[in-house]
Amino acid sequence: MHAVMMPQKTGKNYQAQNRPSQGSSSYQTNLSACEVKQKPSDSKENNPMQDDEHADDQDGDVLQIAMEYFEKDPIRSLRSKDKILEKHLITVENVAWKNGLAPETIDILLNVALSGRFGNAVNTRILKCLIPATLISEDSVVKAVSWLCVGKCSGSTKVLFYRWLIAMFDFIDHKEQINLLYGFFFASLQDDVLCPYVCHLLYLLTKKENVKPFRVRKLLDLQAKMGMQPHLQALLSVYKFFVPTLISVSLPVRKKIYFKNSENLWKTALLAVRQRNQGLCPEPRKLMLGPANIRPLKRKWNSHSIIPVLNSSSHTTECGKKEMNLSEYLSSSGSLPLEQLQRFPQLLENIHCLELPSQMGSVLNNSLLLHYINCIRDESVLLRLYHWLSQTLQEECVWYKVNNYENGKEFASFLDTIIRAESFLHEGFYSCEAFLYKSLPLWDGFCCRSQVLQLVSWIPFNNFSEMKPLLFDHLAHLFFTSTIYFKCSIIESLKELLQNWLLWLSKDIHVKPVTDSPLDTSLCESMNSVFKLVHYVGWLSTIGMRLESNSTFLMHFILDFFETACDIYLIYNLPLVVLFPRAIFYSALFTLDASILNQLCYIMHRYHKNLTAAKKNELIQKAKSKLSFSSKTYKEFNCCLTTMVGCLWTSKPFKKGIRFSPETLEKLGVEEHKRSLNLVYHSSLLGYAVSFLLQETPEEKTINLSSIQVLYVQQ
Amino acid sequence: MRSALGGGLGLRLELHFSAMQKTMDPYDAPESTPRQHPSCSLKEYFLAATPLQRRLESVRKQATSFVPTPPRRRIPQRSQLQEDVDPQKVAFLLHKQWTLYSLTPLYKFSYTNLKEYSRLLSAFITAEKQKGLAVEVGEDCNIKVVFSTLLGMKGTQSDPEAVLVQILSKPQLPSEDREAKALWTGWFCCVFGDGLLETVSEDFTCLPLFLANGAESNTAIIGTWFQKTFDCYFSPLAINAFNLSWMAAMWTACKMDRYVAATEFLWSVPCSPQSLDISYAIHPEDAKALWDSVHRTPGEVTQEEVDLFMDCLSSHFYRHFRIHLSATRLVRVSTSVASAHTDGKIKIICHKYLIGVLAYLTELAIFQIE
């Protein structure tokens, strides 16, 4: 029988089964994925917004045209102004405020704004919308500064440019070149209007080597001329901080505000950029910027995102050493700050001197650090992550404490991040397990469904009996009361859970020496847990099939599960074979769908292989192995097999397994009941038999199915 | 018991229509009761018992007991305070309304660095308040942050010392000698937190209960700093009706020399368009008499006694006003010992039972972070 049924199935399945390492291969450990994406070569590519890609494409095209317009010959564009210019400006503004602009676009626009081709009003508008998608290239800034020397732009444009530069300072990719222009900026201090802004810029830019005696003298001169200006004092205090010996004047200690806030114009945009740079979906931005934003604690506290930003923890560790002064600390270079960690080789080189993040939760967004925490087994790191994750899940969960379903999307994306990290590590977090225990009893089975079910499939291996009342009983309630699609999803996630457990156990069994006797008992216990899980799914499936009146769709998912379950011994090398429940066997055997029958035959075939292999091994190492398969399993399997062969092949059904008395069969009114379940007459294969006959003898008007058997015998 | 009621409790009924429409009921939190569990014997497949595994064990245990087998708690005893406690500081903590938070263990917190923390936190606060401007550490602000310990504010010797954080406004002129005004106060404590202590390693300091008084914006800034510095997590600690009933019973059970306030309950009826509040005040001695009549086990309070106590109160109320209080929600309890609101606000009045009240709050906080 196997020979007949197998060929269609084996090829595909062997491939699939030989790689049992999780279906969701897109998340798999992949070194190329480790490089932190940072260089925004193309703003569109880097844009995390995925929802309305189509709209973005359109925006992109229009922006392209607008940029060509701005890049064109200056004189012509000056003439054909107004309407066209206005249209293009609006395009640029829209894109800028929505998604930000790519570095190249900013480069072009800066050029336009400072070259004086258009009037002041246009320049102002352009400068106001120069919002980066992620970063600004240093070159653009240097070029822009060179325009300032030409003297083509008005004083107000210059002021606005400086304000822009100050506001965007953090988004400029490098600052070395800009720092080389220090002298130029310093000279601009002469300009009374520009002076406050230039001071602020210098305040941000100054390094120790920029502090020179002649500059100090100049500043003191300026101060003598203009009086005690807060911006000058600020700059002086920075100088004094770097080189205290150069500046003898005393600066007032209590000074509240040095600079007027240059950021105001771009405040909301800056928030958005920061958020984009953190690699978050910009969806919650709307929520965050909205005026009425009633949120529990977290919103008010940690304004930006659920997951903390990556920061080195240096100050926690350093502040213990009292003598350490701030400037020494700034120049210290013992360890690698996390902010600089971008590539996998870097991680390997610096793994001994890596500073851990100040908030462990930030590792979730960083695949390199996930590698790191995966290989160090520092208990306190795991505890920190555990506490943070448990509390965050509990606080953010939209159904656990407060029914704030409007934040469902954000919560779902948080769960997605966690699941991504779990798949990346091939390991579940304990926090998620604890979270499921607490929240699953209150779950409606609808909110964040796919995420919750994925979390279920990543529950770390555990004693099944302990987990049953906490989790699986609740899952069963949901299973019985939900739609068929939900039933299918549950079975599927349980299949993934089984795969994850088996993988974990098969890895574990090779690590541990098998000789120890207490370990053997623990293996026994583990196998018992897996047995119970399979048994539980069998139970769910049996009732589920009854509730859904033998739905073929559900049956596919159930058989998928048992395709994994039947191969535990051979593929995962674990001493366990659990059969599926009889009810599943029979409804698959008497199905109306040929693919189900096919899948069933494949599973029976694999069970056969597994059991044979187990038997063989048992004979060989009888002394060694303490795990013997009960003869009941073999009997059970044999019974199923004979029933199957009896039905499909030898046309002698109901000899074993199900038995019907002749009277019952007579009552049913089935003529020739013996034949009616074999390969030719089987309800799921009848169609094939007919089409086979039609192919053989297309002209025949009446079809005689029994002729197939004759044909077969003849051949 | 009947006779106590028959004698007529000094009962007062007030109905308030609260102006604010309450649309949801966020405090029907799933936690039924916090319970501490001794760390249990580990599963065999856990070869090494690390703190994390112990932690998970306790979570599993906790989750199994959704319906509590009758827990017992000790009635707060008078003067459980340690001797070295500073009476001035204790007085400072009383009669103030505190907002409660639970806090996960602090990583690398050190009692020897409190001065340094003061400096860093004040710089952080100044920086937060003038966002976008550079600030030098330790200078240039007219506020001052003071970290100090509240010695003796603990249940057992193994509990870590409580920590007090204050933001003081500096007097404008240096010559002024008057005392700095406290703008914001918060303190961290752990009273009988043994269950939690067992599950963390020595890098952590467990101060699971945080109480704050002052502008919430300040709480947010300081909370953020703590979260960033010690990798901990603050969550608001709400007290559900179940736990409020426990508080009512335990505080009524306390022996008082003198009652300073009536025992008062506030029940909320979730009805639209406006919710209805029922205030139910009893003379404290009547409440005590009722308690004594339901109380069986000396020195302890059991779940049955709590239920019985509350049932008696509601049935008495029903006889008079034909309103089933069981269909409403308890939102506030105030007694001469302390008063607590479901929003997670507490005011401790009686000095003697301070530790007792804190022990229960610590228990709730630990339950929340587990």
From TrEMBL, chain A:
It is found in: Chromosome, Centromere; Nucleus. Residues 36-45 have a biased composition (Basic and acidic residues). Residues 10-32 have a biased composition (Polar residues). GO terms for biological process: CENP-A containing chromatin assembly; mitotic sister chromatid segregation. Residues 1-57 are annotated as: Disordered. GO terms for cellular component: inner kinetochore; nucleus. Its main location: nucleus. Pfam families: CENP-I. Keywords: Centromere, Chromosome, Nucleus. InterPro entries: CENP-I. Belongs to the CENP-I/CTF3 family. This is Centromere protein I.
From TrEMBL, chain B:
It comes from the Eukaryota. Belongs to the CENP-L/IML3 family. It is found in: Chromosome, Centromere; Nucleus. InterPro entries: CENP-L. Coiled coil: none annotated. This is Centromere protein L. Its main location: nucleus. PANTHER family: CENTROMERE PROTEIN L.
